[in-house]
Amino acid sequence: GGNIKGIIKKLDYIKSLGANIIQLSPVFKSSSCHKYDAGNYEIIDEMFGTNDEFKKLCKAAENKGIKVILEAVFSYTSSDSKYFNKLGNYDEIGAYNSPNSKYHSWYKFIKYPYQYESWWGISERPNVNVMEESYINYIIKSKNSILKKWIDLGVSGWRLNVIDELPDEFIELIRKRVQEIDEETILLGDIWDDASNKVSYSKRRRYLQGNEVQAVTNYPLRESLINFTKGYITSHRLKQKIMSLYENYPRESFYGNINIAWTNDTERILTVLDENIELLRLLVVIQFTLPGVPLIYYGDEIGLKGGREPDNRRSYPWGKENKDLIEFYREIANIRNSENGLKKGDVSIYETDSDVFAFERNYE
């Protein structure tokens, strides 16, 4: 099933799709079903397995030419965590239990202990003061830091969730540290806007200026592809949207951006396209042939449907797959993987009739 051993068993299937990276949603111990609010950053949640099993996954994936990227939320934890321990489920003295707790300075209490800053006012997700020195040491700097621990276990990259909530200085520290540990380690950011000119909390962000993330999730492209495929915008407007990103982003980031048509935060793409498989094929062809790194959200390659979360996180229907659609994904991924033009090439978009989108990729 959906655990570490299950992924190991399905590595050959994942490889057969042409994938060479597996990006996992958070796997740290947490009392929630989605695990985005960590209870303990040091261990895999027992629903998924053990740290040893995770290490085996990274090794087995590496042997098949597949890297593993972890997603992490560092701007808040769970209130049911060893750091906060509001429910008393941990042996540690959490910030909620005593002002003398070693974790007390991590959190922002308004009226101790009952009132504290939390993510979007959700009391189960207390915000962390990420620039607090002991927190920086724990996550980033110490020789036994969380970053170091998981890279040593085999992780090849990190995807930072809700990077708007993290100060530039904190992201810069992460980038510097992970590349000290292994210069090949990649750092990605999850952002819904154009990351090149993003303003959050009244500050112009520095995401793509060379010291933070190397690339981001390409939500603006997703929106434009859906709108064009469904006939809401013309191909000329689609060209404008793509060229705006092309001109705004550093070339390296533009070519490293994660080209998504769906994620665990959105409705399933087949549902968005009113279950029209032919429209899905058209959209996927563009997704896989424009500059950027295409991402398949598990199950979309077999026609899984689903509305807003949690309906978009249905189980993978083993034995009931749309085999034709799988084969289509394999073909388009194989074309992309075997053509340098599609991985590195320049892009030229032609002027066409309003319902036709034509472009050329050219490398050397």
Describe this structure in words.
By secondary structure, the chain is α/β, with parallel strands linked by helices. It contains 13 helices and 15 strands. The strands form six sheets. The chain has a five-stranded parallel sheet with strand order 1-4-7-8-11. The protein has a two-stranded antiparallel ribbon with strand order 2-3. The termini are far apart.
What keyword list fits this structure?
364 residues, alpha/beta, 5-stranded parallel beta sheet, 13 helices, 15 strands, 34% helix, globular
> Overall mean pLDDT score?
96
Query: End-to-end span in angstroms?
Result: 45 Å
Q: Order the strands across the largest sheet as they lie in space.
A: 1-4-7-8-11
Oligomeric form: single chain
| Percentage beta strand | 5-15%
Summarize, please.
The protein has 364 residues and is of the alpha/beta class.
Topology, please?
Blueprint: H1 4-9, H2 11-16, E1 21-24, E2 28-29, E3 40-44, H3 51-63, E4 67-72, E5 109-111, E6 115-116, H4 133-141, H5 146-152, E7 157-160, H6 168-181, E8 186-189, E9 199-200, E10 203-204, E11 215-216, H7 219-229, H8 235-248, H9 251-256, E12 258-259, H10 269-272, H11 277-289, E13 293-294, H12 323-338, H13 340-344, E14 346-349, E15 359-362
Parallel strand pairs: 1-4, 4-7, 7-8, 8-11, 12-13
Antiparallel strand pairs: 2-3, 5-6, 9-10, 14-15
Helix pairs in contact: 7-8, 7-11, 11-12
